[in-house]
Design goal:
- The protein is mostly helical and 41 residues long.
- Helix content is 54%, strand content 0%.
- α1 packs antiparallel against α2.
- The N and C termini lie far apart (24 Å).
- The mean pLDDT is 90.
Length: 41
Amino acid sequence: MKTIHVPQKEQLSSESQTILESVEKKMGKIPNLYATIGYSF
């Protein structure tokens, strides 16, 4: 099975960082799946 790399917030675009910051405020953390999807934008 292939390993999925979960990016750090700093590696994402500024648009993705903004979205993930709002998710972090609501949920208290950034789920790995959200961070990985944010990397594709």
